[in-house]
């Protein structure tokens, strides 16, 4: 598959169009089949007990899958999540970033399906698994970043 946006282009897109997440999330690598994204964990991502919150892990998966799709179709700002499922499998390790290994399973004209495995950095077993479907708007209504 052809890569349209590399990690630098995706990170620039996030910084420009989603500044609220640019300081906490970063695309680390882009591959033909998917990408790796990082959650730079901080106190604002923790819940009582010192573990990373479920909403923070969900946001990482959503961002990773969104960026994996954009890496292939370009900066379509109106591509949106239409379905999501997440399984929390174990408590993330304390004091380390989380990494999402994302894979695009199907990229159609209207829908894209992808999955992400989330890992504590340096730990082999995943802490969560997420699958999502995204709706891709028709070309005539694309909101493309300039």
From TrEMBL:
State the InterPro entries in the record: HotDog_dom_sf, PAAI_dom, Thioestr_dom
SUPFAM superfamilies reported for this sequence: Thioesterase/thiol ester dehydrase-isomerase (SSF54637)
Thioesterase domain location, by residue? Answer: 49-122
GO terms (molecular function) for this protein are: acyl-CoA hydrolase activity
**Would I find Signal among this entry's keywords?**
no
Query: Does ATP-binding count among this protein's keywords?
Result: no
Q: Which domain of life is it from?
A: Bacteria
Which keywords belong to this entry?
Answer: Hydrolase
User: What's the name of the protein?
Assistant: PaaI family thioesterase
The organism's taxonomy opens as: Bacteria, Pseudomonadati, Pseudomonadota, Alphaproteobacteria, Rhodobacterales
